[in-house]
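Provenance

Sequences were taken from public entries as deposited. Structures were produced by running a predictor on each sequence independently, with no templates supplied. The record for Centromere/kinetochore protein zw10 homolog from Ibidorhyncha struthersii is shown for reference.
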Amino acid sequence: GEVCNMINKKYNEFLPSVQSAEDLVAKVEGLSRHIDLLKAGIENEVQRDLNVAVAEFTELKQQLERDTLVLSVLKKLQEFDTAIKDYNTALLEKKYVAAAQQLEKARSSLKMLESRKGFELKILKALGTELTVQTQNMLYQLGDEWQKLAVWKLPPSKESSSLESAMHSELHLRTVPSKEEEIAGPPVASVLQAFAVLGELHTKLKIFGRLLLKYILKPLISYPTLQPFTEEQSDVFILRFKSEEPSLDPSSPVEVFYKIQLVFEVLHKYLLNVPLEEPAEDKKECRVTLAELLGDMIWEELSDCLIQNCLVNSIPTNSSKLEQYVEVIKSTEEFEKALKNMQFLRRDTTDLLEYARNVNSHFANKKCQDVIVAARNLMTSEIHDTVKITPDSCVGLPRLPVPAAGDHLQTEKTSKLLHDDMVNLGNETKLSQHTFSLPTCRISSSVEKLMQLAYQTLLEATASTDQCCIQLFYSVRNIFQLFYDVVPMYHKENLQKLPQLAAIHHNNCMYIAHHLLTLGHQFRYRLTNILCDGAATFVDLVPGFRRLGMECFLAQMRVQKGEILERLSSARNFSNMDDEENYCAANKAIRQVLHQLRRLGKVWQDVLPVNVYCKAMGTLLNTALSEIVTRIAALEDISAEDADRLYSLCRIMVEEGPQVFTPLPEDDKNKKYQEEVPVYVQKWMTFKELMIILQANLQEIVDQWADGKGPLAAEFSAAEVKSLIRALFQNTERRAAALAKIK
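Predicted structure for Centromere/kinetochore protein zw10 homolog:
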């Protein structure tokens, strides 16, 4: 029972809480339904109203944007219109800058209009055309004004640029009376600034700059006698030329700078001292002026012209004048400074001054170039103008200017060396005067001059600055390398065709090689200090020159030998001389060979050194004799009459051959060389022995052989002698006996 009570009690407490929970659920459900209703209401009605409001708002916004756009377009159209009106007014009053600015305003309004997408107005095209017309109109009017401000009076264009035509060029610059000036500002300024605003200034100045260079500045540089002079009239300033002898050295840069500066001063005063835009209130300084613009356009060409046609020519050609060049450097500096002050030149420009200051290097370059040009001219001049040199000729040199104090000792020693015929060696011992001497011969006078040029340049080098000294030394080496390359090619045909020129060229090369042996040595005091140990030498070039001379002469010898053999080949092998026709052919061939040798003997006379002459003539005579011996020794049958005729042909050679040796012009002195012919002609004795055989009987031939110990055996082999015996004698027992003894 107690348990029951407990349960009841618990149950009674439990019921009310279940109740209240149920109430709560009911309430929540009611609330939930209410929310659903609200949600449905919102979705259906409120949302719809909201959409309508947004749509309206957007429409209004677009409307506003459209109106704003239309308004801004109208505003721009109005601006354009006002600008064009103001422009017309300003133009009438000749307020060019204002007019130009109005045009530019109109242009920017039009640009804005054109950039509006979706707003392509038909009217824009018309406005564009209007603007173009007005701009052209204004440019035309400005051009008109500009032409009145700077008037060119030029020679007819047919005339080429010459001193004559330069005399007819004038530039008139208009100067305006001061009354008007107060009203409109200087017309030059307003015209040029208006051009600037319209973006046309560049073109105008470019044309002006071209005319200025062509008709004023360049002629002043090119024609030293041209003087600018100016004339001022009431409303015009005239710049023209007259021709008169210049006061200083005409090509002196000092003179030229002075004239050009004068022209720039005039332009600056009357035309170009104008800022590009009208002054802005806030910044007074750093405005670009017209002078600067023009300077930028023409300076490069002008400075090039000044350097090429004026400064280059003023570089001294010998070291003694270098000191005086300071004056040119100073005037160059002042000239650049003056142009910078007038704003024609930018502050950092120093082309001219750098060039002038670099005078030492230009001096060396110019000197080297002059040397090479002179050398080239000598090398391409005629070879056959010759001078005679003897063992005691030395290179004639003018006395040179006294060098600076420091070089004193060395140069004195050097000049003494040049003018002495002795060659000093290190320890001052003397060699005989003729140790290094050349044999008497003829060389081209151009080569003698070339050698003088080399000596003179080296002397100049010893008196120059180190850098210049090195450059000059190498340009002397270049002279010889140039000779080596140029002469054989340049004179190629003549050296092949003309035996005399080949001989002179041979001598020229030997003469140069001879001088190159000692050339560096004579200047060693000065040169070796600068050039690394003993590089101051020319000895390495010697073998090349000797080879060059030899090869050319040997080639000529080959040509002559070929001609001799060619002539002898028409002698019908010297066979059957009893036939008249054959004998005539052989006789003619021999006469032609002698004639050829005589002619050579003449053209080489007094040209080749005697020993070379004798060797050359001996070699050629030997070629002829040797060929004749070979042909006769090869004959299989020689009749008695043949033998007589062959003998008489050979006698012509023996009697007249030596007479072709005429190395010297004085006949009596040539006897000695003619008697020495056997020394120079290897086959001379062979030829004499052949003549003996042609006249001898069998016994005499056997005696001449003398068991292989006689003179005949010295010249011919046993087989050759046997062959000759068989050709000359009938086949008899006596012949057989004789043949048996030749072994």
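Residues 563 and 593 are 8 Å apart (CA to CA).
The chain has four domains: 2-134, 154-176+185-347, 381-396+438-570, 588-741.
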